[in-house]
Amino acid sequence: MPTILVTNDDGIHAPGIHALWEAMQTLGTVVVAAPNTEKSAVGHAITIADPIRIESLNRTNGFQGYAVNGTPADCVKIAVQALMDSPPDVIVSGINMGSNTGNNVMYSGTVSAATEGTILNIPSVAFSLDALRKGEFTYAKKVAQKVATRVLEKGLPKGTLLNVNIPGISESDVKGLKITRQGNVFFKDRFERREDPRGRIYYWMTGSLEDPDTDPNMDGQAVADGFVSITPICYELTDDTMLKALQEWDLE
Ligand code: MN
Prior knowledge:
The chain is an alpha/beta fold and 252 residues long. The protein is 27% helix and 31% strand. It has one domain: Survival protein SurE-like phosphatase/nucleotidase (Stationary-phase Survival Protein Sure Homolog, Chain: A, 3-Layer(aba) Sandwich), CATH 3.40.1210.10.
């Protein structure tokens, strides 16, 4: 029986991690370690100046997990290196409420948890549902089962994780599955300027997702077109073209 580590960034109380935990039950022995509160958009942050505390937490249908007062990357590190007897065969992160495509991959705690797994040499997959507030996870769970099964069979190359985005539409409307590239979806920031009860100004970041891509093989477009998008992602970020161009800069 394979061992599966389940984590997320929406926190251990989120509906998406319960769905992912449920989906993984048929595939192996499941261990859950997730932030005790929501840690969306913390990227790959880790905790080094504070203690990390862990509590056992129970939810419905036998869900038991480690609630960690840390980031998604902390959860993966501590689960693999301190809580589990041996490393898991696969790490799955999600199911995030909201897509993680384009530039948002850089901010995503969901993806960063999977990246941390990859750094630890464990095949890892991030799952996100393109829905906000009200998530319907039935179809996303099937996708997670299928992808995790294949990853357990085939493994993943060192340094590569899979970023899976599932459209937030009913299963009958889903057009299929596309292997995609990371595109250019970005969050167009807007800072709401407000005044607190003591007359001091503060700002609250808000905004909207924008997609400049038209290529249907980009992650954001594929999801918008009704496809499940699967993007292989490497955390090795060197730009090979610039590596060559930079030789000519005469920097010495
Ligand atoms: Mn999140």
